[in-house]
Amino acid sequence: MLLRTLAQKLALALCYLAFAGFVLFPLVWIFMMSIKNFGDIIAYPPRFLFTPTLENYVEVLFGNEAQRAGGQVPDLLKFLMNSVIISGGAVLISALLGIPAAYALARRRDKTSDKLRFTFLSFRFAPELAVILPLYVIYTRIGLYDSYVGMILVHQLITLPLMILILASFFRDMPIEIEEAARIDGARIWTMLTRIVVPIARPGIASAMMIAFIFSWNNMIFGLVLAGGSTRPVTMGILQAMTFDQIKWGMMAASAMVSALPGMIAAVLFQKQITRGLTMGAVK
């Protein structure tokens, strides 16, 4: 019996180890590429022992020699600022629209609310490629192509359904007796929402906003098709390492690490909140 229990624990530990290796190997490989010089990157067989260098990060974050001499801002920093504006604006608008919508969805228990919930859930499964070409035609005709407003609006397809689903789960868990007591005291629906529900659900709202920000930050397809030179997000900055005559693998890897860093920091710092939000809203 003891041997059987030990064997089960060993098998479980090996499964965890294999899964961790499967998940982390691409990240470790990209990080190793980012601190290699070009000769070590293209070496065959791959070199696991090499002299690390920060040249790729210096060029990505501070520009090449010509850019530094001319006092130009590196492209990746511009893309980082664009991503902050686009993802931050998208999450703020989604919060303003999503909180009342999620509250109504949580308190209304009928077939219509179930259909609406399924509709929002379907946005999480619909591929972005299914709508990107019609959106491109519309955006070029009404002047939203390569604009912050256009990018923030299209990112609502990512952030708004996500926030509604997550927040609706938080609101459903709140005891309705508090709202009933407020209603007896004469509070109207908007007063209950702004002065009672939102303050109580503040941790859940922060968690939903963080998850929506990460999903918006990591999106690439909208930036690839609907953004131009002035609004290109950081996920598109990775492609700047591809020129007509070569691919700068080290710069590409360094750009990927820099662009992924905010999401990784948020995932580590807010691990519990993100896990709770994903399991209660997006997956449930």
Key traits:
284 residues, mainly alpha
Structural overview:
The chain has about 280 residues and is mostly helical. It contains 16 helices and no strands. Helix 5 packs across helix 9 and helix 9 packs antiparallel against helix 12. The longest helix has about 35 residues. The two termini are about 35 Å apart. The mean pLDDT is about 85.
Spell out the blueprint of helices and strands.
Elements: H1 2-34, H2 38-41, H3 55-62, H4 65-70, H5 75-107, H6 111-125, H7 129-142, H8 148-154, H9 156-173, H10 176-184, H11 189-200, H12 202-218, H13 221-226, H14 234-237, H15 249-269, H16 271-282
Helix/strand-derived category reads mainly alpha
Radius of gyration: 23 Å
Report the average pLDDT across residues: 84
| Number of E-state strands | 0
Separate helix tally: 16
* Oligomer status: single chain
What helical percentage do the residues reach? over 70%
What's the shape? globular
Strand content: under 5%
Residue runs with pLDDT of under 50 for 5 or more positions: none
Helix and strand run: HHHHHHHHHHHHHHHH
C-alpha end-to-end distance: 37 Å
What characterizes the major β-sheet?
none
